[in-house]
TrEMBL record:
Top-rank lineage group of the source organism: Bacteria
Name used for this protein in its record: Putative Tn916 ORF16 protein
UniProt KW Secreted keyword: no
Taxonomic classification: Bacteria, Bacillati, Bacillota, Clostridia, Eubacteriales
Pfam families: AAA_10
InterPro entries per the UniProt record, alphabetical: P-loop_NTPase, T4SS_component
Signal peptide extent: none
Sorted UniProt keywords: Plasmid
Length: 686
């Protein structure tokens, strides 16, 4: 048994007790503070980080002798103990020699691979382990530091890091490789077979050399683990469990040294240097990053509705997309994956939960899968409006561009041009006639698609494009009264669609949606018309988005892939993704593939990302790149083996994890399911 204050080296004791005779000028203090603020700003862009308060720093220092006891988590506050004096016309800060005497108390006894620290009323048993070798891992690989946290064994981890420049990295690796090669050659010259450890060390050195050539940098690190409790048996049992798991399952070399317990104890003191240099390792930065990647299971927002839980850690996940606008970010979400994986179900869940929390929403429902919502979600009363457009005469002209944009003639003319170009498959001469007529339309008192046909028909006989005008009129007249085409051609007397309820669902009967892989030039007439109607519905959502409201509102685009197939659709996609922040409107793009996103610029505006199961290996790679995760075999396999209603989720803060959605209520589950019911009654006769 020995007193805690005389066993350590003088330097460690001085630094730990705060009685160093070194001084710091006020100017240097300001420089250090400025550097720390710069560091904080840079790192805050990568992960959640904040400066410690003084009471927290004091508490971290005070707890080192109390680990494993509840008093270790109590906040303490020590008074400031320093002098400020003038020295050479400059203010200097001098720590008082006796500043921290008796602030950290405890009598330390060295046991068998354990420290026994006697405090008033309890004994803290602490053992220290060191990672002596980390196996080769992909980044993000085995999150070994997070695994320690998940084991819930009262562990603390201390990581000392020193980064080398490119030249220093090369020199370090060269020296290490030369030393290992010398050992191997010496063994061979002496007629001995080099040990497996020597060959492994040589392979590791060669791997590091390649790493330095590729990434230029390596780091020097030591990673230590402290296990503590007020009961010695618990500490020893936890040590056994941890070492077996790391050494056997993960193939690490984790040791529990006899002689270095006190040295590693000093390493754990906040702001101390790395005193125990016996377990220093040279590793690529990715190796260390792989251990802490996603070290927190926290996903989602701190406010909003409960949507599910993390698969690893079972932590609840909350979501409120309106938080993005408060942080000056785009409130856009992309959902991708196989059919039947839970995409539509959980997109529905997200929208309805936002409505219940005060938002208004518009759902673009091209497959008419939500007709039953008002009946199934009866508790929402009159909050749900379903607008179902049919080929019947009562819906005639309701999607006329001049009806949709009755307050914006320029937008109406642009949309009318795009629709006619698609429907009539116009040539260049017909496009010229169409543009000229639309310019005249801007002066009409009651503009409409039918009036547009009349005006094209009235083109002067002397016009050079008279024949083209007649041909275009003939094409449009052949379409205007056929089936769903009636929705497009109004006469200017139709009432505009009203979507002022809290949850608005827009549907069109009998849409023939082309397969995603079908080329545009191969569309049938029905598919071409359906594509135009989807474009019109998409434009209607733009008008919904631009309506001034005091709440954060949401738009859900089902089958969002179709937006990429036309210039107008791509323009709308870009508008909603980019302008959502300023309009205080979020948009959910529910598609099949990351390739649905029209451009890289739009892809970069999508902040919330949900990737469900995919059977396509190339798509899995695209999903990983979309979420800025490394394309590794492990990650590809993870995406391809997700279960129904599980997804890889990237939240607003860039954190990534696997979540399982939880609709909670049976009413939601029955309502949102898009899986056809099995009406076949049969008995298993196998």
């Amino acid at each position: 048994m020995f007193e805690y204050m005389i066993k350590s080296p003088k330097k460690a004791l001085n630094e730990f007790l705060g009685i160093s005779q070194k001084t710091i000028s006020e100017r240097d203090f300001r420089i250090y503070k400025k550097k720390s603020i710069e560091f904080l700003e840079i790192q805050s862009m990568r992960f959640d980080i904040r400066p410690l308060r003084k009471s927290e720093i004091d508490s971290l220092s005070a707890r080192v002798t109390k680990r494993g006891h509840q008093s270790a988590d109590e906040l303490v506050k020590w008074s400031d103990n320093c002098l400020e004096v003038e020295q050479d016309e400059e203010k200097v800060i001098i720590p008082l020699r006796n500043a921290y005497k008796n602030r950290v108390t405890g009598l330390i006894e060295q046991g068998d691979k354990i420290l026994k620290i006697q405090n008033d009323g309890f004994t803290s048993y602490q053992t220290f382990l060191a990672i002596n070798n980390i196996p080769s891992m992909e980044f993000p690989g085995v999150e070994y530091i997070k695994l320690i946290q998940d084991m819930n064994i009262g562990a603390e981890v201390c990581i000392h890091i020193k980064k080398f420049s490119a030249e220093e990295s090369k020199s370090k690796i060269k020296n290490k490789a030369a030393k290992i090669n010398a050992q191997v050659n010496e063994a061979l010259q002496g007629g001995h077979i080099p040990s497996d450890e020597e060959y492994e060390a040589k392979a590791a050195a060669e791997s590091l050399e390649k790493e330095v050539k590729r990434n230029k940098h390596i780091i020097e690190t030591s990673i230590s683990i402290c296990l503590a409790s007020t009961k010695e048996k618990i500490v020893r049992n936890n040590t056994k469990v941890l070492m077996e798991y790391f050494n056997k399952s993960l193939k690490f070399e984790l040791i529990n040294p006899h002689t270095d317990q006190y040295r590693i104890f000093l390493d754990f003191i906040p702001a101390n240097s790395n005193y125990n240099r016996d377990f220093i390792q040279l590793v690529p930065m990715e190796t260390l990053a792989g251990g802490v990647f996603g070290a927190s299971d926290h996903l989602g927002d701190s406010v909003g509705a409960y949507i599910g839980y993390t698969v690893n850690g079972n932590r609840k996940v909350y979501l409120y997309m309106g938080r993005a606008t408060k942080l000056n970010k785009s409130p856009a979400m992309g959902i991708y994956g196989n059919l039947g994986g839970g995409k539509s179900f959980n997109a529905n869940l997200i929208v309805v939960l936002h409505v219940l929390f005060g938002s208004s929403a518009l759902i673009f429902d091209p497959k008419s899968e939500r007709s039953h919502w008002a009946a199934k979600l009866d508790f929402m009363g009159d909050l749900i409006s379903i607008v179902r457009l049919t080929p019947n005469d009562e819906d005639k002209g309701k999607l006329d561009p001049f009806n949709l944009y009755n307050d914006n003639i320029d937008e109406a003319c642009d949309l009318a041009f795009n629709i006619i170009v698609e429907i009539a498959n116009t040539n260049e001469e017909e496009k010229i006639i169409l543009k000229e007529t639309l310019n005249k339309m801007k002066d009409e008192k009651r503009p409409s698609m039918k009036r547009l046909i009349e005006m094209i028909n009235d083109v002067s006989d002397s016009d050079a494009y008279k024949k083209e005008a007649e041909r275009l009129v003939r094409k449009l007249n052949a379409s205007k009264d056929v089936g769903l085409s009636k929705l497009i051609f109004g006469d200017g007397t139709e009432k505009a669609i009203n979507l002022d309820n809290r949850l608005n669902i827009l549907q069109i009967d009998n849409l023939t949606i082309p397969d995603q892989g079908t080329k545009k030039e191969e569309y049938s007439e029905e598919e071409k018309l359906s594509s135009c109607l989807m474009m019109l519905m998409g434009s209607f959502t733009k008008k919904f988005a631009m309506k001034k409201r005091n709440t954060f509102d949401l738009i859900l685009f089902d089958e969002s892939w179709f937006l990429k197939n036309s210039a107008a659709g791509r323009k709308l996609y870009d508008f909603l993704a980019r302008q959502g922040r300023s309009l205080n409107v979020g948009c959910i793009f529910n598609g099949h593939s990351v390739l649905d996103i029209p451009t890289e610029e739009i892809k970069n505006t999508i902040t919330y990302k949900l990737c469900f199961k995919t059977n396509n290996r190339d798509e899995a790679k695209r999903m990983l790149e979309f979420m800025n995760k490394s394309v590794t075999e492990e990650n590809i396999k993870m995406l391809m083996e997700l279960e129904n209603r599980q997804a890889v989720f990237q939240d607003l803060d860039g954190r990534v994890g696997v979540i399982e959605f939880d609709a909670v209520f049976e009413q939601f589950i029955e309502c949102f399911s898009t899986t056809p019911e099995d009406t076949l009654n049969y008995e298993d006769v196998s």
